[in-house]
Design a protein that fits this description.
The protein has 314 residues and is α/β, with parallel strands linked by helices. The protein has a single domain (32-313), classed as Rossmann fold (3-Layer(aba) Sandwich). The protein is 42% helix and 15% strand. An 8-stranded mixed beta sheet has the order 1-2-4-3-5-6-7-8, with helices on both faces. Helix 4 (115-128) crosses helix 5 and helix 8 (197-206) crosses helix 9. The longest helix has 24 residues, at 2-25.
């Protein structure tokens, strides 16, 4: 019977340890008002679209015939493109947006985060802003939304910029720890209520080629925006609805001139897939960055913009 007693006490200790870990990492949702004060200064604004208050930044000359639209990746926000927008807005109209499920826009009322839903959202956004034709740029998830929008409405997309973009079945899938936890359905109830800041910091460092570029303010931004009411559940729904690589055969149908940018230290999506995009897209140029990771436009805006400027002027 002694072994039963030891087993009983071991179970109690384990339960207490787990309870303590959950209590330590418990993080309540952040209300929109408190987040807007810090993360939506001018020129941020909100527009009503599809039952959401969509967070956008629309800057630069209004007479630009083909504005540049910037789409971030999963668990990110329009802030990922701040460096690009701040530089390009002096000469081009630049529009960035928090996609449904992320950033200050928050969850979709329908809970539908399939790519085809995102592409139609982008087209409705352009209609709302009275923009007829754009240069469409996207990172990761935003990259797939960009090229699928170009296929759905080719007359609306003049050029494409794909940055470590989704589309193919990943050859390398070393997900940040935060994404790994989010993909465990059995832990969903707990995962919707916890988000240790050290976990966010570690996940962010893992997607940067040079982790020392991950500043405390950047960690704060990712941490707080992912705690926006509804965003944690939206991430789980998006991961459940994702069909990685299913639409890859369609990439060969892209006719727009395309610039592919890739960080060679990307451990989420293999850099080999950057070359594959340019094998499948007839008018395509690939530029890689040896020191950068999965978010090259955020990690080094200046270096990546050199290739973008050359492409826009070509």
């Amino acid at each position: 019977m002694n072994w039963l007693k030891r087993l009983w006490w071991s179970a109690i200790v384990l339960a207490l340890v787990l309870a303590g870990a959950v209590a330590w990492s418990w993080e309540p949702d952040r209300q929109l008002g408190e987040l807007v004060a810090r993360w939506a200064p001018e020129p941020s604004r909100f527009i009503e679209l599809d039952g959401m208050q969509v967070h956008i930044r629309d800057t630069g000359p209004r007479n630009d015939p083909t504005p540049i639209v910037l789409l971030h990746g999963m668990s990110s926000s329009l802030h990922s493109f701040e460096g690009w927008q701040g530089t390009l807005q002096g000469e081009r109209r630049v529009i960035s947006v928090d996609l449904p499920g992320f950033g200050l826009t928050g969850p979709s009322p329908q809970g539908d985060y399939r790519i085809e839903v995102y592409t139609r959202f982008i087209l409705r956004l352009l209609d709302t802003l009275e923009v007829k034709r754009v240069v469409l740029a996207g990172n990761a998830l935003g990259g797939e939304i960009a090229w699928q929008t170009a296929l759905l409405a080719p007359e609306r997309v003049q050029k494409l910029i794909l940055i470590d973009a989704d589309g193919y079945q990943p050859a390398v899938l070393s997900m940040p720890l935060g994404f790994q936890i989010a993909s465990m359905r059995g832990l969903r109830w707990v995962s919707e209520r916890i988000l240790p800041r050290p976990l966010m910091a570690a996940s962010l460092r893992s997607v940067f080629g040079e982790p020392e570029r991950v500043t405390p303010e950047r960690i704060d931004r990712y941490f707080e925006l992912n705690l926006r009411v509804g965003n944690r559940r939206a991430l789980f729904q998006r991961m459940d609805q994702a069909t990685f690589g299913e639409s890859a055969p369609l990439i060969r149908r892209i006719t727009q001139p395309t610039l592919v940018l890739w960080g060679e230290r990307d451990e989420m999506i293999s850099p080999d897939l950057g070359a594959r995009f340019c094998e499948d897209i007839p008018r395509c140029r690939l530029v890689t960055f040896p020191q950068l990771g999965h978010l090259p436009q955020e990690e080094d805006p200046e270096a990546t913009l050199q290739a973008v400027r050359a492409f826009l002027g070509s």
